[in-house]
Amino acid sequence: MQQVQTVPALHDALRPWRTRGESIVFVPTMGNLHDGHLALVKRARKLGAMVVVSLFVNPLQFGEGDDFAGYPRTLQQDYALLEGLAEVVFTPAVTDIYGRSIDISTRVEVPGISDILCGAYRPGHFVGVTTVVAKLFNIVKPDIAVFGEKDFQQLFILRAMVADLAFPIVLEGVATVREPDGLAMSSRNQYLNARERRLAPKLYQTLLEVKERYLQRSATRIELEQQAEFKLKQYGFVPDYVSIRNARDLTTDLTVDSPCVILAAAHLGKARLIDNIPVAL
User: Fold this and answer.
1) CATH superfamily of 187-276
2) In this predicted model, what pLDDT tens digit does every residue of 197-207 receive, in sequence order?
3) Which of 34, 37, 125, 267 is catalytic?
4) Is the CATH number 3.40.50.300 carried by domain 2-174?
5) CB contact at 8 A, 236 and 199
6) CA 205/CA 199 separation, integer angstroms
7) In this structure, are residues 268 and 200 in contact, taking their beta carbons and an 8 Å threshold?
């Protein structure tokens, strides 16, 4: 496994594989890896012979109140976890990605869908995500890129970006990896204290209850959302939203046969947790 820090070094590492016509599969991460990340890398392993993983804490997607400086950085641990799973690990500096100044670096935005749901509560967050992913795509030039489905909105936005900008890249989604009690795996789970960790699975359980009641048509969409938020508050969460959306366009335009997804974001102590579950009709 090669560990490279600069763009020229990455290109040198990938050149032999590209010359042989091997598929390059890319997994972008912010490091502090857990089993959820490793599931993405293992899926990448099955999709191509050359797997590239990036470890880069992206300052552009951290908004006001987000703890960029305190985000966990566990580089040596991450290297150890990736041994035998990735051919190349790319750990660029901020200047490698954003050049001389992040403040005047070009931005990439997917309008509309970047400003709803999590985008409404974290202004500019998804612009930071699409900008860094577009830059990484141009640097790595992968054939396939792998992302988790835990952040449904993020993957939806990235698919739109890839289509709009005609990136010759296939995006592969991997189902959310969960702890035995149902909590979606996340680097932010480590911000939970012992009491909060016991409560955290209630987010997933609440979504399952919403799904069951939605399929039973026992209440309106708005009623289900409001009741779920009220229940989360009773448990001790501070919910940003619980929302039932059309899975095709993320609108609230739902018909009887619409594929949909139930999404939620809620604060519990210092952690902001997100989750979603699809609804198969």
Assistant:
1) Pantoate-beta-alanine ligase, C-terminal domain (3.30.1300.10)
2) 999 999 999 99
3) 37
4) no
5) yes
6) 10
7) yes
